[in-house]
Amino acid sequence: MSRQHKAHEPYDLPDGTRVLDWSDSSHYCPTSGPCRYCGNGTILRDSAGRASHKVCAEKNGGV
Ligand SMILES: [Zn+2]
């Protein structure tokens, strides 16, 4: 069983769970900002550069 999705592209598990690949350094910022979904501080950034927890983005169809 090999991974079929392209690197750094989000994909969906058979049960509908979205999985994001945020292993790239562009998803990390040295300064904390408020998560666009839950408002708590995070150093993570989504693919558009907005502060966001990975789990929050996955739960809310983020990128
Ligand atoms: Zn969050």
Radius of gyration from CA coordinates: 12 Å
The separation of the N and C termini measures: 25 Å
Hetero compounds: zinc ion
* Oligomeric state of the chains present here: single chain
Summing up helix and strand content along with how strands pair, one would put the structural category as mainly beta
Average of pLDDT: 90
**DSSP E strands, number:** 4
Strand content: 15-25%
Q: Helical percent range?
A: under 10%
Spans of at least 5 consecutive residues whose pLDDT stays below 50 are none
Number of domains: 1
Shape: flat
- Characterize the biggest β-sheet: 2 strands, antiparallel
Give me the side-by-side strand order of the main sheet: 1-2
What is the overall number of helices?
1
Q: Helices and strands, in N-to-C order?
A: EEEEH
Structure description:
This protein has 63 residues and is mainly β. The protein has one domain (11-59). 10% of the residues lie in helices and 24% in strands. It is built from 1 helix and 4 strands. It has a two-stranded antiparallel ribbon with strand order 1-2. It has a two-stranded antiparallel ribbon with strand order 3-4. A hairpin with a 5-residue loop joins strand 1 (11-12) and strand 2 (18-19). It is flat and about 35 Å long. The N and C termini lie far apart (25 Å). The structure holds zinc ion (ZN). The site of zinc ion has 6 residues, from loops.
